[in-house]
Write a structure and sequence with these properties.
The structure is a single chain. By secondary structure, the chain is α/β, with parallel strands linked by helices. About 45% of the residues lie in helices and about 15% in strands. Strands 1-6-5-2-3-4 form a six-stranded mixed β-sheet, sandwiched between helices. It has a five-stranded mixed β-sheet with strand order 9-13-12-10-11, with no helix packed on it. A two-stranded antiparallel sheet has the order 7-8. Helix 3 links the parallel strand 2 and strand 3. Helix 12 packs antiparallel against helix 15 and helix 19 packs across helix 20. It is elongated and about 85 Å long.
């Protein structure tokens, strides 16, 4: 059964431009559409989640999604919104990245079912690698004028930018190569729609023009808005750089935290774009959140949904536990359940001192706070803090006579010291 894909995108705020006739075309029958993904890394990041969700909604509406890994175009570099060229990759690296990307897309798309609209992964390197330069300029290049290519915003912006380097011929031809992808998929798989971010409109319409001129066919373009944050900072970036979908690059805890830290305004927008919750469910969550915003129900539900999709329900549960652990009434037992990587994520940036295991049995609280660690400025500061009952070991108050031992070790090697609520220090036993 075909559902109205364009209507689904509209209420979610995921439509920027549609070519006239696209909605009617989609309502007539099951259609094939594709989106391209850059394979220059072996992981996608959350900036790729919008096109991923476009394909996922497309499949859920009864249509057939194609995910195109740009092995050939990844060797060139897309000038859209960029100020410099990408690094070029060899085929072995591209194939490795392609497999990794497919595994990530499989969290959102059904590649394996027998359904007629099962998702398909393709790599444009497979049809471009045997294409000679002379064949390409003869069979493709002659159909598009330089004037047409120069009129594209992505080209005009790059040429008129302050960069003295200008734009290479390699980059200039990018829109032709991407346009040919659309033509190839139109011919080979009856793919009639290309989707992407609003910055891709020029490249996509070059493809529809090639389909019209060479195949005498009709292709359509659908683009979504580029995601922005209400505070003006860049979506998809954290202090450590990109927020990746690969757990080895961005841990599930940090991934969860990224969404949990969204502003109310952003979270209300994101929950429509990055989850499969229906309109009524989202309205209910937003209403409930507005009645008690301090509970951050909107952000929590957003983080839960997307962390579960990208990672797993277990990873999400562990990330939630880690997020709440600093406020847990059973802190010492709860923190023992965290793996070391998550533990270090939770306490990222907290100063540490290393102490030999052989010294632990003779390490008194004064030494732990001052002489051996410099957590506090002096032994007298340490004594004063202990007398004021301001010192905690693993969140439990201690006095000066407390003796540290292996019982205090978290994951067999860490002890958390606190002076008051705000000052935290970690002893690492080596």
């Amino acid at each position: 059964m075909i559902k109205n894909f364009v209507e689904e995108l509209k209420w979610r705020g995921m439509i920027h431009d549609t070519m006239p006739g696209a909605e009617e075309h989609l309502m007539e029958a099951m259609r094939s559409a594709y989106i391209g993904f850059d394979p220059t890394a072996d992981s996608l990041h959350i900036g790729n989640l919008v096109p991923i969700m476009l394909l996922a909604h497309y499949q859920r509406c009864g249509h057939k999604p194609f995910a195109l890994v740009g092995g050939a175009t990844g060797m060139i570099g897309d000038p859209s919104g960029k100020s410099s060229e990408r690094n070029l990759l060899d085929e072995a690296a591209l194939r490795h990245n392609e497999n990794a990307i497919k595994n990530q897309l499989a969290h959102f798309l059904d590649f394996d079912s027998d359904a007629s609209n099962a998702a398909v992964l393709v790599n444009n390197y497979d049809w471009m690698k045997e294409f000679s330069f002379l064949e390409f300029i003869r069979d493709v290049g002659k159909h598009i004028t330089v004037n047409y290519m120069m009129a594209k915003d992505s080209v005009k912006n790059r040429i008129s930018s302050d960069s003295s380097e200008g734009m290479s011929f390699t980059e200039f031809t990018y829109q032709l190569v991407q346009g040919y992808d659309f033509l190839h998929l139109f011919r080979a798989s009856n793919c009639t729609i290309q989707m992407g971010g609003s910055d891709q409109w020029g490249n996509i319409t070059t493809g529809t023009e090639l389909i019209r001129r060479i195949a005498q066919g009709k292709g359509f373009a659908i683009t979504c808005p580029l995601i922005t944050k209400s505070d003006g900072s860049k979506f998809g970036k954290s202090e450590g750089g990109n927020v990746w979908l690969d757990a080895n690059r961005t841990s599930p805890y940090k991934f969860y935290q990224y969404w949990l830290n969204s502003s109310d305004e952003d979270a209300e927008k994101y929950i429509k774009i990055f989850t499969f919750l229906d309109e009524q469910a989202i309205e209910d969550i937003v209403k409930s959140h507005s009645e008690a915003p301090h509970l951050r129900q909107l952000q929590r539900r957003l983080a839960q949904e997307i962390t579960t999709m990208v990672h797993s329900a277990e990873d999400c549960e562990n990330a939630e536990k880690a997020s709440n652990i600093l406020f847990s009434k059973s802190f010492k037992s709860d923190i023992q359940t965290l793996d070391e990587k998550t533990f270090l994520d939770v306490f990222e940036g907290v100063p540490q001192a290393e102490i030999e295991k052989s010294e632990l049995s003779t390490l008194n609280m004064i030494g732990a706070l001052a002489a051996k660690t410099n957590f506090l400025a002096s032994n007298s500061d340490a004594r004063r803090a202990l007398k004021e009952n301001a010192v905690s070991v693993n969140k439990e108050k201690v006095k000066e006579d407390y003796q540290l031992s292996e019982v205090d070790l978290i994951n067999g090697k860490y002890i958390i010291l606190n002076k008051g609520k705000r000052n935290t220090y970690i002893i690492k036993i080596v």
